[in-house]
Amino acid sequence: MSKTPDNAPFLPLDIAILTVSDSRTEANDTSGHLLRDSATAAGHQVRAKAIVPDDVYALRAVFSNWIADPAIGVIISTGGTGITGRDSTPEAVTPLLDKSIDGFGELFRQLSYQDIGSSTIQSRAVAGLANGTLIFCLPGSTGACRTAWEQILAAQLDSRTRPCNFAQLIERFRES
């Protein structure tokens, strides 16, 4: 369980939310809305939100622009992590990563197993670091996004989480 000292300062992060879908619109993007609302409620700033079709090159363009933007420190995407022909988020993102965070996908699938059983093996949730930007690619279901946010991301993006968290490391991601 994550511990947060009462006197630790909260560091709000600048987050971008990307929904990967050929069918979602702003009106029915429940997963994107959940992530945006959860991040905002936690005290973070959502600097950008977009919906992009499941196309490797369109996705790389958006990810690359946000990775290059110094005003964005975290990108959370939802959708495109399955195994169908159109699911291409990992293929779009993985070549852009400087470092992968393998434990994220492993932990996400472990936690998801409690809700959806062996179907969790169909998820290719991934995470990594690119140009000092944290990237988390989640499945498209609202339940999966809730699991990822509530059981992993909320604590890891909170600078008060102990013994450690991603938020406290952000300033060091571009060290050489």
From TrEMBL:
Pathway: Cofactor biosynthesis; molybdopterin biosynthesis. The keyword DNA damage does not apply. It holds the Pfam family MoCF_biosynth. Residues 16-160 form the MoaB/Mog domain. The keyword Transport does not apply. GO terms for cellular component: cytosol. GO terms for biological process: Mo-molybdopterin cofactor biosynthetic process. SMART domains: MoCF_biosynth. May be involved in the biosynthesis of molybdopterin. PANTHER family: MOLYBDENUM COFACTOR BIOSYNTHESIS PROTEIN B. Belongs to the MoaB/Mog family. This is Molybdenum cofactor biosynthesis protein B. The lineage of its organism: Bacteria, Pseudomonadati, Pseudomonadota, Gammaproteobacteria, Chromatiales. The gene is moaB.
